[in-house]
Amino acid sequence: MADAKSETQSSNQMWGGRFASGPDAIMEEINASIDFDKKLYAQDIRGSIAHATMLAHQGIISAEDKNKIVAGLETVLKEIESGAFEFSRKLEDIHMNVEARLATLIGPAAGRLHTARSRNDQVALDFRLWVKEELQKTEKMLTALITAFLDRAEEHADTVMPGFTHLQTAQPVTFGHHCMAYVEMFGRDRQRVRHAIEHLDESPIGAAALAGTGFPIDRHMTAKALGFREPTRNSIDTVSDRDFALEFLSIAAIAATHLSRLAEEIVIWSTPQFGFIRLSDAFSTGSSIMPQKKNPDAAELVRAKTGRINGSLIALLTVMKGLPLAYSKDMQEDKEQVFDAAESLELAIAAMTGMVRDMTVRVDRMKAAAGSGYSTATDLADWLVREAGLPFRDAHHVTGRAVALAEQRGCELAELPLVDLQAINPAITDKVYGVLTVEASVASRTSFGGTAPSGVRQQIAWWRARG
Ligand code: ARG
């Protein structure tokens, strides 16, 4: 009797039947996932309630047992949410922690919950539900960021700034247009999120260990109860698939990459040398030694978070690579990557939304920079094509000579006297000065998708109509 007791204590209560003794300490250390998968408690309990309800509906367990199970699970949920629940590493993961507590609360009826189910389909369900909710949250957060950019674009549809290629002054653009470029990027991220929600919207529960079950379960019923479109079609694929996690991480990596580009621009723009924006105190820090400094730490950290998020994608791709079907314990390594990436992405989006809303745009500095660096040289070339009938290549050459002359004189293109321009090409008239200002330059870029303020307002209206 005493022996039997110690045997049940030391071997696992879920599969103790076959095991004479408990695991080595290091086995417990490497095997346990409770420290991180306890995050899935709400999804686990929701899944179990749906499963038990279906089992009773199908006559697989009694209504009485189902009622006990559901009431017990609700108590467990409350215990976890109040912080009273004691998680145990001996019980390995969230599934067994919940079930063991249920057994203590309601007795033998708890043992019927795991009928026609395995932890393999259970974890696939819990994690999918979690990722689905995270994607829904991400969609909302991206919408807030997009809205922040739309508001700034509207405010600055006419504000001129230098547009860059190779980070060299290229052509004048409007700050509104630049903001709308980010709206496009984050709009694509949001589309990817929406598609991912559609892709994962199938319920894994009922695939059991890998082969399905002989019990007359109704997977359509559990799918519906859990808010999925339909059940998954192949039980082997169901327990071996982590595409939903990989898709989340790929989307997160692309979005983080976008966020890092924005972060980098904020870092550059807020330097005294550029001075295009001023960050609010809310999103910068001071230096402990240099009193004059205001550092864009939040932007720098967003830029850095991309490293973690991209790392998580590579980590999980590498875990999944070469795994034979169906479930392998390797897949337990999926959660920490996703949880960490999700937390980093949320922080990064929130910080960027705050910065975009808060930053002061220095219109005067942008305008001054927009006119420097011969940014309207292309406008001169285009004018020569339009008004003087030159082939573009010749116009490019003429303009090059004008730029060289201005450079030599240390002045802007618009400051070159007409006689000097005419010495380069006699077809030039004083009308040319009308296109050499930055305002005229941006206003002329009316091609679809171009930087003219009218075009920027069209872009804003297109996005506003789509929410
Ligand atoms: N903790 C496990 C995981 O996260 C749950 C599934 C375990 N299944 C198994 N057959 N050992 O993947």
TrEMBL record:
InterPro entries, per the entry: Arg_succ_lyase_C, Argininosuccinate_lyase, Fumarase/histidase_N, Fumarate_lyase_CS, Fumarate_lyase_fam, Fumarate_lyase_N, L-Aspartase-like
Catalysed reactions listed for this entry: 2-(N(omega)-L-arginino)succinate = fumarate + L-arginine
Known pathway: Amino-acid biosynthesis; L-arginine biosynthesis; L-arginine from L-ornithine and carbamoyl phosphate: step 3/3
Domain called Fumarate lyase N-terminal: residue spans: 17-311
Cytoplasm keyword on record: yes
PANTHER family: ARGININOSUCCINATE LYASE (PTHR43814:SF1)
Superkingdom classification of source: Bacteria
Name the record gives this protein: Argininosuccinate lyase
Keywords: Amino-acid biosynthesis, Arginine biosynthesis, Cytoplasm, Lyase
Enzyme kind, highest EC tier: lyase
Domain Argininosuccinate lyase C-terminal: 374-443
UniProt keyword Thylakoid, yes or no: no
UniProt subcellular location: Cytoplasm
GO MF: argininosuccinate lyase activity
Organism: Mycoplana ramosa (Mycoplana bullata)
Family as reported in the entry's similarity comment: Belongs to the lyase 1 family. Argininosuccinate lyase subfamily.
Lineage: Bacteria, Pseudomonadati, Pseudomonadota, Alphaproteobacteria, Hyphomicrobiales
EC number(s) per entry: 4.3.2.1
PROSITE patterns, sorted: FUMARATE_LYASES
